[in-house]
Each structure stands twice: as C-alpha cells, then as structure tokens.
Amino acid sequence: MKTLSAAERRRRRSLFVMATLAILCTILFGLLQKSGQVVTYGFVLDKEWVLFQQWAIGSRNASLLFGVISLGASALAYVQFKAGKTIKVASAVGSAGIMMSFLSWAAAGKFIPFTGLLQGALLLSVPLIFGSMAGVLSERSGVVNIAIEGQLLAGAFVSGVVASLTHSTFMGLVVAPFAGCLISTLLAVFAINFAIDQIILGFVLNVLVYGITDFLYKKLLIPYQSTWNSGPTLSAIKIPFLWKIPIVGPILFDQSIIVYLMYGVIFLINFSLFKTKWGLRTRAVGEHPTAADSVGIKVNRLRFMNVMIAGMVAGLGGAYFTVGGVGAFNKEMTAGKGFIALAALIFGRWTPWGAVSAALLFGFADNLQSVLGIIGTPIPSEFMLMVPYLATIIAVTGFVGRVRAPAADGTPYKRGESH
Amino acid sequence: MSLELRGITKSFGALVANDSIDLKVENGEIHAILGENGAGKSTLMNIVYGLVAPDSGEILVDGIHKTIKEPRDALASGIGMVHQHFMLVPVFTVAENIVLGHEKSGFAGRLELGDARARIKEVSDQFGFDVNPDDLIEGLPVGVQQRVEIIRALIYDAKVLILDEPTAVLTPQETDDLLKIMRELKSQGTSIIFITHKLREVKAVADRITIIRRGKVVGNASPTDSQDELASLMVGRQVELVPEKFSHVIGDPVLTVKELTIRDITGRALVTNINFEVRAGEILAIAGVQGNGQSEVARAMVNLEEYVEGSIIVDGAQVIGMSVREALHAGIAFVPESREYDGLIASMSIAENLILDVHDRPPYAHGIQMSPTVVLAEAEKRKVEFDIRLQSVSDPISSLSGGNKQKVVLARELSRPVKLLVASQPTRGLDVGSIEFVHKRILEERDAGRAVLLFSTELDEVLALADRIAVMYRGEILAIVPSGVTAQELGLLMAGVVNA
User: Fold this and answer.
1) Which band of pLDDT confidence, cut at 50, 70 and 90, is reported for residue A1?
2) Which of residues 171-190 of A touch B (CB under 8 A)?
C-alpha cells in the first residue's frame, strides 16, 4: 500500500467522520424515528418574509431522504479520493445532507423559514468573515492578531458615532476602517518594532478598546444619545436579476452594501494572496522571514503594512454592528465575535476560503440555535449554542487534522538573530 | 570577476568577530576559507552579502568600491550566496522561491512564473541538476534544495558564489556531487568562496586557502599541505586528528535492543524493528544521514520517546517503562543531541547544571534543603577533572563556549556509576580542540570496560572511534559492519545502497 501524505491522511479521516455521521443520521433520524409528523420548509422568492412557496414532507421521510443523499455523497467522495481527485463538492453535499437530515428530525411538526435561516446565518457570519480576513492578512505575514476583537469594536464605535453625527451611513462606513487601522497600528508598532509578545499585546489592546469605548459610552453616548448615538442604518439593496435566482438569490443578493463589500474583500484577498507578487512576499515573510530578507524583501515594512490593512478590514467589519445593524452603539457589542473569527481563521487553516467556510458554519450554527429556540425543538438550545465552539475545539485539537500555522507566525524578525 | 575585502572589522559587544580582515578572491578560483566554529567566517560572509553591516572596511568588486548595505546590493554586484541554513520557503515551489524578490507581474498584478520556469529548466539541464521548477521545496532532499539555491544564484548572474558550510547537511555522496558541481562552475568562470572546517574537502577542491582564527586571518595555505598542517594552523597548536586506539578484550553484552519500533504521534513508524547489542568495552557507532531515525533511537535509550515497542535491556533491566530518572540511575550516561536544549538549563549556573541528576540526594541535599557549599565544591572538583575552562562555577552556563558546555554535560553524565554511555552527535558544532577531548574521553570509557553507543553523522568520527558500525537508513538498520570498512563503503551504505 502506498503511504499517504499528511494531507491525504487528513482527508481520509474527515471522509471517515462524514460517512459515520451519515450512517448515524440515516439510522437515528430516519429509520428509528417514529413520529408521523410533517416538517414544513418555507422559501422566500418574492418580497422579504412573504411566503412564496412551501415544501411539506413527512419528517421521517425527509430525514431518510437526506440521510441517503449524504450516504451517496460519502460514497462518491470515497471514489474520488481513491482516484486522487478533490472531494470538496462531495463533502459539501454530504455535510449539507447530514445537517438537513438532523433538521428534518429536530423540526418535526414545525415550520422552518428556510430562506430566513440561511439569510440570518450569512448575516451572523459577516463580522466573523471580516475578522478572519483580518486574521489572514496579519497572520500570513507572521504577526499574530488576537486584537481582532478590539479592531471590530473600535470600528463599530467610531462608525456608529460618526454616522450619528453626520447622519450619513456612508461616512460611517468610510471612517470605520481607520478606527480598526488605529488599533492595528498600535499592534504593529509594539509587535514589530519593539518585539513585544504578540498574544499578550493583542489581549491588552482588546482590553484597552473595551475600556475606552465603555468609558465614552457611559460619559458621552448615554447622556447625549440623540446626537451621538442614534445613527442611521444601511438598508438592503437587491442586485438586479441575481437576486431572483431561486433560494440563493434572496440569501446572497438581497443584502446591505457591507455584505457586498465583504464579497469583494474575500475575492480580493484570495486572489492577492495566491496570485500576486504582494501575496508571494507576504507568505514568504510569514513562513521564512530570513529567506525573504536575503532576497531583498523588507520584512518588517511588509508586515507593518499588512497588519495595518488587516486593521482596516476588521474595522470595516465593525461597522456591521452599528451602521450595518442596529444603528446605535452598545457597550461591548462585539461580544467575543473577534475571538470566534480567530477560531474560524484557525479552523480554516489560515486560508481565505477556509476561514470563510468556517465562519459560515459558525454563523449557521448560531442562527440555527436561535431559530430552533423560537420554534421549540427536542434539543435544548444551550446545546446548540455549544456547537460552533465544540467544532472549533475539535478542529484545533487536530481531530479533523493537524492545523499548521504559518511557520514564523508570532515570531518578531530581527536581522541576524533568527536561524 | 574578482572580489577584494580590505580591513573588514565587526564587533558584537566585547567580541571582535572580524578583526581587520583582508582577503582577495581572484577570477575563476575556488577560494576556501577555513576556520573553526566561531572563528568569524560566517560573519565575514554575511557582511559581504549585506546581511550584517561592518564597523569598518571596504569591499571591492573588480577593483571598484561597492557599498553593500542590503542583500539586494550584493546580488546587483554579482555576489550570490548559498546559506548554511537554506533560504528557501518550504511550502513554496522551486519556481516561487526563485522569483521571490524579483517577481514579474502581468495583467491585474497576476504573478508570472513562465520565464522563471524556463530559466530554471535551462540552468538545471546545463549542469545536470535534475530540478523540476514545480516541485515543492519541503518534498525535496537537502542536496536538491541546495542545488535550487545554486540555480537561484546563477539565474541572478552571480559571478562570485559564496557557499557557507555547504557540506554540513549532505551525505558523503551528495558531498562528492557538490564538489563536482563546484569544479564545473569554476570551469565556466564563476569564482567560489568555500567556507568550511572540513579539511578533506578543502584539499579536494580548493585552489587557495585562507585560514581564519578568532576573527583574524592567520595565514594562507595550499591544498597540497597536509591535513595536520592545516589543522594546526586552524587551531593554533598541534592536534591529533585521529585519536590513538588500542585493541583490547571485549566483554559481555551490556545493552541488548530487540525488535525496537518507534512511532510519532500520528502512528507513523520512524524506526522499524531494529536489533543490536553493545558489549562491555566496545563502541558501537550508529551512523547515518541526519533524520533516518537515529535521534529517536538515542532518545529511546533513556525512555524519552513516547510510542515505543520492543525491548531495550541494559544490564539485565528493561528500560522501556522506566522513568528517565530511573534509566539514568540504572547505569546509563546520556549525552543528548542538542546540548543547548536537552543537555543543559541555560539560565542555571555551571555548578547547578553539573548536579542536575543528583540534586535531590545526599550529599547535595538533605530532605528538602540543598547544600550549596557541597554543590560548589563538587563543581570545582569536576572542573579540574574535565578541564572545563571557566571563570567561576557560579556563572550561568550560557557564558561557556560550545566545547566547554559539552564538557559540563560529560562531567555530569560520567560522574554517576555508568555501564553504558549513549552519546548522540557528541562533537556537533565543536572546535577541533574540544572534539579531540571528547573523542579521548569516549575512548577512555571504552577502555575502562563500559559499553558505548555512539550516534554520529560524521564519517571521520565514526571511523576513528567505532569498533563496529551500524548504518541506519529510513528507520532501519541496513547493515552492521566491522571498523575496517572504508569511508567510501560507509558513505554508500548511508545513502541506502546495500550491495554496491
């Protein structure tokens, strides 16, 4: 038998996990389910929240159907794996089947607004995606960015206040990146120029932003709420034609401008990181800074620049909380999303698309627990709350595979010191 | 192209790494710079390559002054360098590594690798390198990685190529190939600066030799000079390169290893089913290129490896399952591969490092209280016995040179009652004088009737010390041969060739 590479072993392991889950779902939710109840899925095609079409199916049959689909996908993935082909599509279908099989069982006898579920999932993923993109930019160049949380919060605060003062969501969006950039510049100065421990530094910066925003919130935003903290919010824009695509259209193309900016950021970062000179150099200084230096690349200057851009991306993500959401700033309103973004970054193996997938998964689990909480299901919603974190722990402890950070991530570079 | 250095001086704090060094490399010659570790060779070359700024001195290329502040300046002046630790990003392809820093962009900033691929193929074919531009670096053997570095220098028109300790990581066969490549490059007009402390290679390939000792040029030599002459110039006194070894009676087996398999955390076997024994008064050397499982076997001898199957019997006792402490006190002396990380505690004093193994027992400690005076007195005693050069035994261990650190490790390990000495790469990175001491000491242990298990990647060391030699290749013992084997046969075995 030929020996498998680490990546192949990892793929085989996740294939195995998927197949096991598919079998479990088919048996538990399909064959063993006694309920003769009906589950109803609702799809929005026309106006928001107006039901256009619904699909009612027996809960047992649905679980069985999706279980069998996931089994089929697992088998296909195995065949492709053996043939040495990529198993991404089959895995995606398989995972979705497993999820749907579970959902059909959990929501037996209930109604599920399917489009709303996914739309909400995407919305909840927005700050996670911006945050993890900031993480990709900074960590790929070798600077650990624990301060994503602080950058998000700073972006949220500044954009909320500016939008409120100027009565303009546009101004709110414009200033948000600079707020994030301010925090990340602090990170860059101390981490790169003074070689301070980056984990501690990131935490301190988060606490700093928490402190400053709390203080200003109490002393300024609450007393003078009508002028300082009652900003306008962005409304959803439908992209002509695209939004009419069944199911995905309303989810992807009926969103606010900040979500469209996010699409752009993802594609731009992914392209730049792997296809441009800047990307090659960024990855080089994150993996082997001495080698980059020896061919004339200014390691610390490039890192500094990347950390600043990372701050801008996270700051823009912060605007989602205020101008992109409720309008008003609230104390500590990022609520740890920056840390979950960090988890998505690691779960996604420091690649843009990996991080996006992980962020979407976390957003979906987050929204699923609230939807299931509302309609009432056999599973305690507290358990559902655990899912994103559980998934992260499993990912990070290497069950899904050993996660490899950029080799020089977190290591300050000084010429002549490293080996 | 010729390269001239005049009065290069560089100090790091109180240490003068380069003291007014003059050097001239002529067009199309292989110029060896010979010196011990820490003599200042690497600093000098890092100055030439723009990685370190000199305090004073000047660099002339073809008689013209050059200001070299950055590696970029060096490349522009036609100076290329192959570093001791490769300057290649492991997760990049060959082509990506070569274009790094000199990228060409096309539409929308998209990276263009086509030209680079073609150039790599061209140079690779010209010298018979067999390098594929699309291979990932981390999957390539070190010898090939080195060729990638050479190709890079050639593609960027290096007329003077600096090779910094290029053979340190190579197998004997790869070394021979490299020497051939060097001659080939020279015949095509490239000047080469060859930095090394290996006398045999210098004699084989160099046109001229400059010897550096403690930051100063101490003289020039010709490749026709004998190895002993070169060594004494390098060290500054007469040295015995090959220690004297007497034959004597070999006793009963002390160490018996049976069906030993060692795995890593993922379950992959790093060492597969190996068997050997070492008798009293015998040195068994385990030879092999770095990374063929020797390190794991060495660590397993004191039960430092986690996933071990088989048996390791020392003097009738099973080591597997013992704690490290029990193994050490069962009569095993252990000199680890990395003395900096595994052998010593950098922040502790020399005296404390000397009694790490027995710090909790009389006379050094009574109950929970230690006796510092006894510790210091013992340290003074061992300092004399092992000729450790130091200012005060209370100084931190980090104040010592590599050779003296190794003497501290030896002093600690050999002060227990010992039946088996396990020494892993005991002379790596040491100067000639310290190597001489360590070799003598190992032979003394053998002559006193102890079993010695020596792990080494150095052919000369293995041949000089061993009574029998086991060659490891890809986690297995390929063969166990008597000490009379030639360097060439041993080299082939280390490369995995069995019936040559």
Assistant:
1) very low
2) none
In contact, A172 and A162? CB cutoff 8 Å:
yes
The helix/strand/coil state of A293 is helix
Annotated domain spans of chain B? 3-235, 253-494
List, in sequence order, every residue forming a beta bridge with B479; answer none if it has no partner: B471
Tokens of A307: 């950390």
Chain B residues with CB under 8 Å of a chain A CB are 46, 49, 51-52, 70-72, 75, 81, 83, 85-92, 96-97, 99-103, 105, 109-111, 266
Q: Does B102 sit within 8 Å of A295, measured CB to CB?
A: yes
A 248-287 residues inside an 8 A Cβ radius of B: 272, 275-281, 283-284, 287
Task: Tell me, yes or no, if the two domains B3-235 and B253-494 fold the same way.
Answer: yes
Taking a C-beta distance cutoff of 8 angstroms, is the pair A67, A25 a contact? yes
Assigned CATH class of B3-235? alpha beta
Residue B462: pLDDT above 70? yes
Q: What is the pLDDT of residues B21-37, one digit of tens each?
A: 999 999 989 999 988 87
Round the CA-based radius of gyration of chain B to a whole number and report it: 25
Q: Could you tell me which of A162, A276, A287, A171 has the C-alpha nearest to residue A230?
A: A162
Q: Which of A280, A294, A407 sits opposite B71 (nearest CB)?
A: A294
User: Which residues 8-37 on chain A approach chain B with CB closer than 8 angstroms?
Assistant: 9
In whole angstroms, give the CA distance from residue B102 to residue A295: 8
Structural domains present in chain A: 6-109 (no CATH), 116-396 (1.10.3470)
Gap from B378 CA to chain A (nearest CA, Å) = 36
**Residue A190 in this model has a pLDDT that exceeds 50:** yes
Distance from CA of A281 to the nearest CA of B (A): 7
- Res B75: pLDDT: 87
DSSP label at residue A323: I
Q: Which CATH number applies to B253-494: 3.30.2320.80, 3.40.50.300, 3.50.50.60, 3.40.50.2300?
A: 3.40.50.300
ipTM: 0.81
Report residue B241 as tokens: 């390169």
> Which of A9, A278, A295 faces B71 most closely, judged by CB atoms?
A295
pLDDT digits (tens, 9 = 90+) for B321-345: 899 999 999 999 999 988 888 899 9
Q: Which residues of B touch A288 (CB under 8 A)?
A: 87-90
Residues of A in contact with B474 (CB under 8 A): none
